[in-house]
Task: structure prediction
Amino acid sequence: MKRGFVVVLLSSLTLLGAVPTFAADGAALYRTYCASCHQEDGQGIPGTYPFIDGPIGRLSTLPEGREFLVAAVLFGLKGELVQRGVTYDGEMPGFAAAMRDEEVAALLNWLKTQWKNANFAAEAPDYTPEEIARVRALLLKPEQVMEKLQVVEEILHAKGPGGPGQGNCPDHAPPAGRGPGR
Ligand code: HEC
Result:
């Protein structure tokens, strides 16, 4: 009797999970998958978890930045990263298995309207499930995702008015000094 009830309950929960009319809730997804490291306010923990208050908005304005962000959420990130002079050499897990395309889109659409990320909202179109699916098909390693960030930084720094070291991306260190011979 009891066992039968549990089976029925579990199968109805599974059914509920499969019904697409439940819109993905970006704020809830952030609390579930990201806030433990990047914190509720997106400020991270300096030296351990980078802040994502600002970078997500800015990166969302560029095709290359969007591809990096989606790839980081799906495949994770590994390698050296410098933010405002603080070096991170950690590893972020990927969430490709945990989140559907609609959920990743909802999460990034919520994030790009939060905190200082919202300053870039006018230039950052919404993420769509199709955009997520296209990046998902790339099947990248976390190290390859980091290479994408380096490409975006070079674009931003080259475009910026502040000259080397400032450019258009004050959140990140310039590419100079990162790679061999640069
Ligand atoms: C277990 C801890 C952890 C979790 C959970 C986590 N991250 Fe990260 N995240 C990191 C670390 C560590 C780095 C830096 C990686 C490195 O040093 O290579 C990072 C880097 C990033 C960056 C790059 C920041 C920049 O300035 O370029 C973004 C964006 C990001 N995370 C977003 C997210 C999002 C969105 C989620 C939730 C889906 C998430 N992270 C979940 C640990 C985490």
The longest strand covers residues 81-83. The chain is about 45% helix and 5% strand. Residues 33-34, 36-38, 49-50, 52, 55-56, 69, 72-73, 77-79, 81, 83, 88-93, 95, 146, 149, 171 surround heme C (CB under 6 Å).
